[in-house]
């Protein structure tokens, strides 16, 4: 096993653990981050500009649906990453072709994680629901950190090997 392969496996496993813990925390402490989703979607701590307030979603059922979708996305991302870690571990001493073929689930998991924080938190929450305007319920900095970590690992893993 080479150092780059070990690095890729370890970093992918760290993100698998990260997404697992986030999903677990959101299930076991549902109310904490549910409040975040509720406030962001309601846009109740933004500048309340009439030009964007029509985007606000104040339905508790929609808040729960969105939060459950986020949790499911996090859990699915974790599952893909753990499958990816297992496949990478199995290919750790194999040929470059076997290694490259084993990366699929991990690359899908990393892409799913990047979409959650890039599209979900920065684009939808940050821009559509104007989360950036809120002092109390602004998760853009954390989302950017999570997105950066995920993208760096995706880039590291996506670099294919040659025989």
Question: How would you describe the overall organization of this protein?
Answer:
Residues 1-25 form the signal peptide. Keywords: Membrane, Signal, Transmembrane, Transmembrane helix. InterPro entries: DUF2165_transmembrane (IPR018681). This is DUF2165 domain-containing protein. This protein has one domain (3-158). It is 74% helix and 0% strand. The chain contains six helices and no strands. α1 crosses α2 (30-42), α2 packs across α3 and α3 (60-90) packs antiparallel against α5 (104-128).
Tell me the number of structural domains.
1
The average pLDDT value, as a whole number, equals: 97
* Beginning-to-end CA distance, first to last residue: 14 Å
Strand-pairing-aware structural class: mainly alpha
How is the secondary structure organized here?
Layout: H1 3-28, H2 30-42, H3 60-90, H4 96-102, H5 104-128, H6 140-158
Helix pairs in contact: 1-2, 1-3, 1-6, 2-3, 3-5, 5-6
In short:
With 163 residues, the chain is mainly α. The chain is built from six helices and no strands. Helix 1 (3-28) packs across helix 2, helix 1 runs antiparallel to helix 6 (140-158) and helix 5 packs antiparallel against helix 6.
